[in-house]
Amino acid sequence: MSGYDRAISIFSPDGHIFQVDYANEAVNKGTLTLALKSKDCIIIASEVRSSLKLQATTTSKIHRLTDSIGMVTSGLSADARVLIKKAKVECESYEYNMDSTVTVDYIAKFVADTQQKYTQSGGVRPFGVGCLIAGLTEDGEGKIYKTDPSGVYQEWHCCSIGKNAKTVQSYLEKNIDMLKENKLSKFELLKFTVESLLEIVSNGSQNMEICLIDKEHGLNLVSKSTIDDIIGKIEKERDDAEKQ
Amino acid sequence: MDALFGIKTENETILVTSRNFARGISIMNHQDRKYIMISDKIAMGIVGEAGDTAHFAAYIKANVKLYENSFAQLPTISFKDGEVASDADEKNDEEHVLSTKNIANFVRLELAKSLRSRKPYQVNLVIAGADGDLYMIDYLGTMVKQPYVVQGYAAFYAMSLLDHHYRTNLSEEEGIELAKMCLKEINLRMPASVGDVDIVVLSKTKAPRQFIIADKDLRKSI
Fold it and tell me: Where does this protein have coiled-coil stretches (chain B) (predicted)?
């Protein structure tokens, strides 16, 4: 204990706010989430930890903000719930006031602003939550934003956060040229997402939640059977490659 | 003279709103829409002070949407041969959808709160639901649920007709005929005519139907 982590509004001499660093740690320990985009769609996906035997339902990690914007979080899920509620209220309130739906950058900035507020006021602690906010703009272009507990927000081509995010991130980086071309079809992007998740996630579709956003259908979860089919295909391809 | 009334038939709920927007002694607009669809199962007709109606309707709709969006589950899709194929067994998540009763009570509460504020909303409403519920709420927060409801001066003429002709087993066509009969009587007796009307038919089984009955057709048919 250095004494500089007793209150969030106190800097350590080397310029850190320890509570914010600790909150980032909570994000790095959270479930793995990622977001990817192609020419006409976005995919947000998350690892789902297995539920206990006696538990009735698992709660979805992916949330709808508007008909074309989704949000997924990593970190303390109780904090996430509150942050998501704030974002949803802002989306409705924006639409009520302006008579048009929010843009992805607006709501990403709003979430980041909210998170920042909780690093600079007394009597509160930061949200232990990192967010990926992804959606389509009016002309159908995909945008992906990442926020973290300090209130920083950036736009990404594709991004992953949470536990083992580094492994997935380096897998995405390996394929960045392909992703940047924006030429993958919905199904190809979905397959690539499953491949990326399989770097970390075991147990197949049971531990994955994948959401596809496109102009025609809005936000939709991809069914378990489809994910299983894709996993089967990937495994077969890998076996074939090994034989050769 | 705004007309706003609703009739519940055996399987449908019909909402009738007039399209004339009058200010003082002049009609300013013949295409005024005095109802909003809160969802595809619930319609809300609203008359009263010009700005209040639009503002209050938008406020109610935004709140209902916010509530439903904070519980809504995402639908699921599948892929077949690399193309999106929507699931056959689409689950309808009815659990977190607000009923007509829920919305009517929320509206009543908001009006009751507003009445005790510095500048209350001056709006009167009819809320019709596909589930067969039909509510009338006035700016004082009075709420009644009836098989047929009429707001405003039109009630003086329409109510006696509805009392006489109403049956619980009306078909959709008979319901619309009864609405036309009321409109004719209103046009005949009231100092100012109602003009064209918007009709919304909400059905338990079918998709909602919205159409216009023109004033001249109405006069021709009867």
Answer: none
